[in-house]
Amino acid sequence: MKKLSATALMLVMFAMIGCSTSLDTYRDKEPHLKLEEFFNGELVAYGMVQDYSGEVIQRFRVDLVGSWEGNEGVLDETFYYADGREQKRIWYITKTAPDQYEGRASDVEGVAKGKVAGNVLNWSYVLNIELDGEPFSVKLDDWLYLVDEDNMINRTHMYKYGMNVGEITLYIGKK
């Protein structure tokens, strides 16, 4: 019986992996996302962080200002957390191909890499955060969905050692 259960579990896992969403699914979706257009000017975002169990552990607002010169962009973010903390992050973004971007920020390990298809950007990077006063790095799998020209939804899965440790959900809108 144990062998059958393990086999059944493996089949379910492979089926789930096979059903996972690929970026190509969005290739023909409109409006087409161009980071240099959406993240240009003043924006505001509202979001929450959930732990691995789904419990909301943080709420926040972000004021964003984006500017672009050719293929180079700067996204200046100021976070205002519900617990009163403030945090600053400045992204330096480069469009490296018609559908590809790279980003750097002081709390990002190495280079963030992203690819656009249709109305979606999938962005991957390692973010260094503080947890209980100690440095902690998490891998982020960021999915940004352009709803219309002025609004975006961002869903992020956070991983540590390959295990899901939480999610971030964020609404971003132009001011």
Tally of individual helices: 2
Which class in CATH terms?
A: Mainly Beta
CATH homologous superfamily label: Calycin beta-barrel core domain
CATH topology: Lipocalin
Q: Helicity, in percent?
A: 10-25%
- Distance between the terminal alpha carbons, to the nearest Å? 59 Å
Largest sheet: 10 strands, antiparallel, barrel
Provide structural commentary.
With 175 residues, the chain is mainly β. It has a single domain (32-174), classed as Beta Barrel (Lipocalin), CATH 2.40.128.20. The chain is 12% helix and 63% strand. The chain has 2 helices and 10 strands, in the order H-H-E-E-E-E-E-E-E-E-E-E. It has helices at residues 2-18, 35-38, and strands at residues 41-51, 56-69, 72-81, 86-97, 100-104, 108-117, 120-131, 134-148, 151-160, 163-174. The chain has a 10-stranded antiparallel beta barrel with strand order 1-2-3-4-5-6-7-8-9-10. It is globular. The N and C termini lie far apart (59 Å).
Topology:
Layout: H1 2-18, H2 35-38, E1 41-51, E2 56-69, E3 72-81, E4 86-97, E5 100-104, E6 108-117, E7 120-131, E8 134-148, E9 151-160, E10 163-174
Antiparallel strand pairs: 1-2, 1-10, 2-3, 3-4, 4-5, 5-6, 6-7, 7-8, 8-9, 9-10
Keywords: Signal
Pfam families: DUF3833 (PF12915)
Protein name: DUF3833 domain-containing protein
Nutshell version of this structure?
The protein is mostly beta strands.
Feature tags:
175 residues; Lipocalin; 10-stranded antiparallel beta barrel; mainly beta; globular; disordered N terminus
